[in-house]
Write a structure and sequence with these properties.
Layout: E1 4-8, E2 23-24, H1 30-33, E3 38-41, H2 49-54, H3 57-64, E4 70-74, H4 94-108, E5 112-116, E6 124-125, E7 128-129, H5 134-147, E8 151-152, H6 154-165, H7 167-171, H8 176-179, E9 186-187, H9 188-206
Parallel strand pairs: 1-3, 1-4, 4-5, 5-8
Antiparallel strand pairs: 2-9, 6-7
C-alpha cells in the first residue's frame, strides 16, 4: 500500500481551483516531485494551528491515517494575526501546545510527524530578503527538540532560494506580480518552486525512516 503524506497547513499550501489561477499553493505541486507517495492535501486558507484543530480538520486526517504515513505540519502565518483573536496563538505557549497535538496524533496512529516552519513572504527591504514569523519558527524548532520530531526550516530554505533567484525573478513567485498587493500567496510558478524545495528535503528525511 502506498505511503500517504498528509498536509496540515494554510493558504500557502492549499490546492486551488482553476478559476483561482494563477494563485496556487505548494501542496498542489508536491505530487509532481514525489511521485512515489500519495499526497493528501488538507491545507485550507485562514487556519492557524488552533483553528485547524478546533474545526475538526486534524480529526478528519486521523480517520484515514495509517501506519507508515507522514503528517506534514506547516503552521504559523495565521497564528501570528493578533487582530484576529479567534485564530491567534502565542508562539511560546499555546502555539507550541497545538503543534504537539499534531505530533501526538500522528504517533498515536503510528505515522511520522514532520514540522515545517512557515514559508517566506516576499519581504524585501534595502536589497535584502527578510524572514518573518521569527518567534513562530523558533518555537517550532523548540517543539522539534522537545518532541524529537524532525523540523524542515522552510523559512530559511525559501529565503535562500529567493536570494539566489534575485528580486525580479522572486517577484514572479508571488501574487504581487499579478495584482500588485499580495506578497504572501504564490503564483503557480512560485508554488511549484517551493514544492520542489520541500520535496528535496522530504526525500532526504525519508531515508532515515
Amino acid at each position: 500500500m502506498m505511503t500517504t503524506l498528509f498536509l496540515a497547513s494554510d493558504s500557502t499550501c492549499q490546492s486551488y481551483e482553476e478559476k483561482d489561477a494563477p494563485q496556487a499553493g505548494w501542496g498542489q505541486f508536491l505530487q509532481e516531485y514525489l511521485p512515489a507517495y500519495q499526497i493528501s492535501n488538507h491545507a485550507i486558507g485562514g487556519r492557524s494551528s488552533r483553528t485547524f484543530i478546533e474545526e475538526g480538520r486534524l480529526s478528519v486526517i486521523e480517520k484515514t491515517m495509517k501506519e507508515g504515513d507522514f503528517l506534514l505540519i506547516q503552521m504559523g502565518h495565521n497564528d501570528s494575526t493578533k487582530d484576529k483573536p479567534e485564530r491567534y496563538t502565542e508562539p511560546y505557549r499555546d502555539y507550541k501546545q497545538y503543534l504537539k497535538q499534531y505530533i501526538h496524533t500522528a504517533r498515536k496512529n503510528h505515522a511520522a510527524p514532520v514540522l515545517i516552519t512557515p514559508v517566506a513572504r516576499l519581504h524585501y527591504v534595502s536589497g535584502e530578503f527578510l524572514a518573518d514569523f521569527g518567534d513562530y519558527c523558533n518555537a517550532m524548532k523548540e517543539v522539534g527538540e522537545e518532541e524529537q520530531c524532525p523540523v524542515i526550516d522552510l523559512m530559511q530554505h525559501s529565503i535562500n532560494h529567493l536570494k539566489n533567484a534575485g528580486f525580479e525573478e522572486a517577484k514572479t513567485y508571488y501574487m504581487v506580480d499579478v495584482n500588485g498587493t499580495d506578497h504572501t500567496h504564490f503564483t503557480e510558478k512560485g508554488a511549484s518552486q517551493i514544492a520542489k524545495i520541500l520535496a528535496n528535503h522530504i526525500s532526504s528525511l525519508m531515508k532515515s525512516y
